[in-house]
Specification:
By secondary structure, the protein is α/β, with parallel strands linked by helices. It has seven helices and five strands. It has a single domain, classed as 3-Layer(aba) Sandwich (Pyruvate Kinase, Chain: A, domain 1). Strands 3-2-1-4-5 form a five-stranded mixed β-sheet, sandwiched between helices.
Amino acid sequence: MATWKEINRRIKSIKNTAKITKAMELISTVKMKKAQDLALEKKSYIAGVLKVIMNLTDSLADTAYFKNRENHKKTLGIIITSNKGLCWGYNINVMKKVNEYVKSHDEEIDFVTLWKRWAQFIARTWNNIVADFSGDFSDNINYHFSKSVSRFIKDKFIDGDYDKVVVFYNYYVNTIKQIPVARELLPLTDKGIENYFATILWDENYDYTGDENLKYTIEPSVEELLDEVLPMLIDSMFYDILIESKASEHSARMIAMKNAKDNANKYASRLLLEYNKARQAAITKEVSEIVSGVESMKD
């Protein structure tokens, strides 16, 4: 059995661990709140874009981003994981979703990765990696970085290199719950856009459909407008995906650090009980030795 001094050292070590995990929990909480605020800021913009797109559905089918190519043979998979560890099954859940998709779809898949470790993992286990943006991916997601990635994706799709683009990431539901999803980003469909924004702007009283009586006067033409608006729409959708993924990451890490902190405190409490028992036993032993010594001197 460990001595009370050894137990005391273990208690101090565990309490220091609890302090570190508590600090990491607070940092993740702040970062998660920041990601949530970014997600909320874009809602009014997205609502406006949605209304415009839904009223131009008749002109969408002929655009390059809406053309549904038959017999999907080649797919571009975008994998978004964390840039750091200590977030439990966050990354594992994404990779399980990728594996599930690969097994259930008879498609040739190339990958774009946004994390270095998973880039190495994909290179060892699956198909070719056509791009890796891990070096530019950080906690501070900005629109310029997001746009650089989405521009790469759009160019590959428009050039005909891929028939479909699927993004694998953790969708943020709330602080406790994040769902790994495989979201088809391209080609676009009017129903897909409506469902996508309905998820972002969830409101049971919100009308997501376009106004049939609302007519736009568009100059120079609907086609030229869509050539500008649709790329912006895809950029916004991908930016939202990155924010959702980052909010999920910080939530998962916050919960992981909170559980680690709580477990450390519980373990320290159990050790404190052992410490008190060991210390009491040592004191009792010393008292017994003193009494025995005194009694032996009387004899």
